[in-house]
Specification:
The chain has two domains: about 15-205, no CATH class; about 210-350, Immunoglobulin-like (Sandwich), CATH 2.60.40.2150. It has ten helices and 13 strands. The chain has helices at about 5-20, 50, 55-60, 75-80, 85-90, 110-115, 145-150, 175-180, 190-195, 210-215; strands spanning about 115-120, 120-125, 135, 150-160, 165-175, 215-225, 230-235, 250-255, 265-275, 280-285, 295-300, 310-320, 335-345. With about 350 residues, it is an alpha+beta fold. It is elongated. Residues about 1-20 have low confidence and may be disordered. About 20% of the residues lie in helices and about 25% in strands. The structure holds heme C (5 copies). The site of one heme C has 29 residues, from helix 7, helix 8, helix 9 and helix 10.
């Protein structure tokens, strides 16, 4: 190596020593502070700054809930009920205050810069060949540790001045802990093993994506004994519980005969809460389904009313909000539920359940 080259290596080592790569856990405050981009020029904060060269990734992200995190109707309706600056920290992470500090750049939600830019430099798992960026390689950037910065947190302690500076011990969103405790804990690249794969990539499909939910939740029906149906929902494809994430998320399993709608059978899959002694809320019942596990229900055909040979409608719905059917005045302007599976079952032709 020539002396000049050695000089360059020493210079690079000095830069590395001056600005150590940040820890992945330091990129996000779990909702306690805005994401601070430091000395980043305004032009590099927008998604448009990346779209010229990263057209495919930008198009995927533009269709993601990350992009809609601030603007989506379900969030906005909930935020109007409880307009804490704390919510803004994760749903419009570049904003420094409450809703009044959300301009067009901040309204881009969980944008490219939120995950990839700090102090005018790029952060990623590693620099790619041909990259024009000054890139800091952050260990664990392509693991659950990155997602944990926003997808794992407890009920907050809300101070008298409506600020949030600390958390209770009761999980509000428990997605990363569910993943680590579940059957998919060893998935290579962890969350990205399912959510970051092409072609979906930066679209991060989840609960608002019919194909993703159908892939995650299987519904099957068999005859437990004469005159009795067994309904079963299995978490075949999610890396965490079904449902996970926001506390209002739940599934409804329903069976009914069209001539006897009031005799409807209905089961709730999700978490229900009660006030906790320290602050916030704690889980009262949790019927959410861990990875590769099932929940079953036995339904007596007679209890469903109607004629003995009348087909039975069976349905699985994913509901995003506490109110499945909001009144017109209170509607969030986007669907509040997704019909995941629906079938009509002929009671005479239901296969017997395996023993
Ligand atoms: C929620 C966080 C998040 C957001 C938002 C995000 N990315 Fe990424 N991005 C990642 C992760 C995680 C990886 C994979 C880790 C790695 O390989 O560095 C990645 C990888 C990349 C790569 C490397 C090439 C590849 O295909 O993996 C590019 C380029 C990139 N992102 C650009 C963008 C652009 C442009 C935007 C905005 C349109 C964006 N990202 C938004 C988290 C994010
Ligand atoms: C002038 C073109 C250009 C612009 C503008 C651009 N990038 Fe890149 N970027 C590239 C190229 C080329 C690569 C390396 C090859 C690849 O992975 O696409 C790259 C790589 C990356 C990587 C992977 C890490 C690395 O350094 O290899 C990330 C993350 C990334 N870009 C994010 C962004 C974000 C966020 C923006 C907007 C703030 C942006 N890029 C703007 C061309 C560009
Ligand atoms: C800066 C905070 C932040 C980070 C980091 C982050 N997310 Fe998100 N993510 C959000 C927010 C906020 C939403 C909810 C958007 C909304 O209001 O629907 C979301 C939504 C999602 C959804 C869609 C949920 C749905 O209902 O369809 C998926 C999937 C997801 N994130 C996966 C990930 C993964 C995987 C990672 C790590 C690679 C990650 N996120 C990193 C904040 C973040
Ligand atoms: C084995 C594949 C797999 C792994 C691993 C995985 N997920 Fe998912 N995830 C899914 C599928 C499929 C869905 C759609 C069904 C649903 O909404 O639960 C989903 C949904 C979600 C949602 C939307 C939740 C909601 O309320 O509907 C979020 C947020 C999410 N994942 C985040 C993560 C994070 C963070 C990790 C890592 C800790 C992760 N996922 C690991 C497959 C996976
Ligand atoms: C620590 C980060 C964080 C904070 C703080 C936060 N959220 Fe979220 N929120 C998320 C993540 C991550 C998701 C995505 C999980 C999912 O899709 O179920 C989400 C999802 C939601 C959803 C579901 C949106 C949808 O697309 O269906 C609503 C509604 C919501 N949050 C409202 C709020 C409100 C209101 C506040 C303040 C009182 C708040 N959030 C505070 C991280 C946060």
């Amino acid at each position: 190596m020539t002396p000049r080259r050695w000089g360059l290596v020493v210079a690079l080592l000095c830069v590395a020593a001056a600005a150590p790569a940040p820890q992945v856990s330091a990129l996000f405050s779990r909702g306690l502070a805005p994401v601070d981009l430091g000395a980043t020029p305004d032009a590099d904060r927008t998604a448009a700054a990346c779209a010229t060269c990263h057209a495919d990734i930008s198009a995927e992200w533009a269709r993601s809930r990350h992009h809609l995190a601030w603007t989506n109707g379900i969030f906005q309706r909930e935020y109007r009920r409880q307009p804490l600056d704390w919510c803004v920290r994760c749903h419009a992470p570049l904003a420094t205050g409450g809703a009044a500090s959300v301009g067009p750049v901040e309204a881009e939600g969980v944008s490219c810069a939120v995950c990839h830019v700090r102090d005018g430099r790029m952060v990623a798992a590693r620099a790619r060949e041909g990259s024009p960026h000054d890139t800091v390689a952050v260990a664990g950037f392509d693991s659950a540790a990155l997602c944990e910065g926003c997808h794992q947190f407890a009920f907050p302690v809300v101070n008298e001045d409506s600020t949030v500076t600390r958390y209770t011990e009761h999980p509000m969103q428990d997605t990363v802990a569910e993943f680590r405790a579940g059957a998919h804990a060893g998935t290579p690249r962890e969350c990205l093993g399912c959510h970051g794969n092409t072609p979906a990539g930066h679209r991060f499909p989840g609960g608002h994506d019919l194909a993703a939910v159908q892939h995650a939740a299987a519904l099957d029906v068999c005859a437990a004994r004469p005159g009795e149906l067994r309904l079963r929902v299995t978490n075949v494809g999610a890396g965490h519980n079904l449902p996970t994430g926001d506390l209002h998320r739940h599934f409804q399993v329903r069976a009914w005969r069209s001539t006897a709608p009031t005799a409807l059978f209905e089961a709730f899959i999700g978490r229900a809460f009660e006030p906790a002694p320290d602050a916030g809320k704690q889980v009262r019942v949790d019927t959410s389904i861990p990875p590769l596990q099932s929940a079953t229900w036995e339904v007596k055909l007679r209890a469903l009313g109607g004629a003995a040979d009348e087909p039975v409608n069976v349905e699985l719905r994913y509901v995003y909000t506490a109110d499945e059917e909001p009144t017109a005045r209170n509607a969030p302007g986007e669907p509040t539920y997704l019909v995941v599976h629906e079938q009509r079952v002929d009671p005479a032709k239901v296969p017997a359940c395996p023993r």
